[in-house]
Write a structure and sequence with these properties.
Layout: H1 16-24, H2 37-42, E1 56-60, E2 66-69, E3 75-78, E4 95-98, E5 116-119, E6 132-135, E7 138-146, E8 157-165, E9 168-172, H3 182-188, E10 193-197, H4 207-217, E11 221-225, H5 232-237, E12 243-245, E13 250-253, E14 263-266
Parallel strand pairs: 3-4, 4-5, 9-10, 10-11, 11-14, 12-14
Antiparallel strand pairs: 1-2, 1-13, 2-3, 6-7, 7-8, 8-9
Amino acid sequence: MVAAPKVGTDLKRKIFPLLILLGAAAPPGLAFGFCHEIEVVQAAILRIATGSAGAVQIEWFGHSTFQITSSQGTRILTDPHTRDDLPWPTLPQHIVTTSHQHGPHSNIWMARGNPAILEGLTPGGEDWKKIHLSIRDVSVYTAPAYHDKSQGLQRGKNAIFVFRVDEICIAHLGDLGHLLTPAQLKMMGRIDILLVPLAGGMFTITASEARDVTKQVNPRIAIPKHYWWEGAVEEYTRGQSRVRRVSERGFKITKKELPQPTEIVVLNWNDR
C-alpha cells in the first residue's frame, strides 16, 4: 500500500500527479474493479474472505463533508465545507477529496495533518481528473457527472467519488444535478453506502430526484446530505418504511451488518 505523502499545507495541491502515477501502476482489476463483482472474482489479488474486514465509521460534519474512517484508522475527508456554524473535524486526515471547485466543497485547508489531496476536477473545473488508486488501506476512483441537467452548461461539472473501505463500497455524489445514466451506474459498480444530496434543484437534485437516484443505485444504506432547510428529509423519506434516525453525527458498521433492502439513515448534522 502507498503511505499518504507528508507535505506542507501549501503543497497539498501539488501531490496529485504523483498519486495518479501510483494509481496507474496498480495491477489490472485492482485500480478500477474493486466495486464490480465480476471483476473482483476475476482478480485473485482482491479475493478477501467475507466478513474478515472491521468496522467503518461514517461521520457527517454538515453540508457534503463526511469523515470516513477505516478499521485501521485511515481517515478520508470529503468535500470540506467553509461554514463556521457547522462542526469541523479535529483529527488529522490521510485523504481529502473535492467533487468540484466551488468553495463550500473544496476547502482543503480544513484538513489537519498532511493528507493526500484528490481533486475530482482540474483547478479551473473544465475537465474531470481520472482517479483510480490505492492509498494506505483505502481504494478510490471517480466517475464523471454534472452539476446540472444541461451537461455542465449551467453550473459546470461534478465528480462522483467511490471508496472501498473494509470491503464496503461508499459513493459520495458531490453536487450531482441529474439522474444517473447507465454508463455512470456501471462505472460506480455495486454501492453499499450512498451519500446523496437533497439541495432543492437549484444546487443539486431535488429530494424527489434523490429518491429516484437512490432507487437507481439500490445501496444497502442511503444517507442524505447537502440540505439545510426544514422538510427536506421528510420529502426524501416520504413513503419509505425503512428510515433510521441517528442522534449523533455518525455510526460504525461492518460489511456483515449492512441491511437489506435499502435503509435510509438520517444523521444529526447539528451535533457538535
